[in-house]
Amino acid sequence: MASGSKSGNRSDSLGGNMKESTESDPFVVRALARGLSILCLFDVYHREWTIDEMAEQTGLLRMTAYRMVRTLESMSFLVRDSTTNRYRLGPATLAMT
Fold first, then answer.
1. Per 3-state DSSP, what percentage of the chain is helix, strand, and coil (rounded to 5)?
2. CA angle, 39 then 89 then 40, to 5°
3. Quick check: 50 and 87 in contact, CB under 8 A?
4. 19-45 confidence digits (pLDDT tens)
5. DSSP letters along 73-94, please?
6. Residues near 57 by beta carbon (within 8 Å), at least 6 away in sequence
């Protein structure tokens, strides 16, 4: 569950400030980096997230997070629980392993 510790932006634990590195490199696709920042939130301790939680943790605007999540959902990287409106990793992530 994502209701664990929310002590700041989780992108810091993923190798530094993702925003700084993506903005300073002209060859980085910012939209892809934003989508990956959402996927990087999911781990063994944070298996489910709401859109609001994902927006807060990544620093994305809620509408941007919503659009990224809907895109990831349409490609089966995320799956939404229709009862709780929480998202978890989808079957497309398993195909990557």
1. 50, 10, 40
2. 20
3. yes
4. 666 778 999 999 999 999 999 999 999
5. HHTTSEEEETTTTEEEE-HHHH
6. 6, 9, 10, 11, 41, 49
Over residues 55-78, the pLDDT tens digits come to 999 999 999 999 999 999 999 999
- Could you identify the residue written with the tokens 């079957």? 91
Q: What is the dihedral of CA 56, 57, 59, 63, to 10 degrees?
A: -50
What is the pTM for the complete model shown?
0.78
**Predicted local confidence at residue 4, as pLDDT:** 43
Strands (E) across 6-48 are located at none
The token pair that represents 97 in the structure block: 């392993």
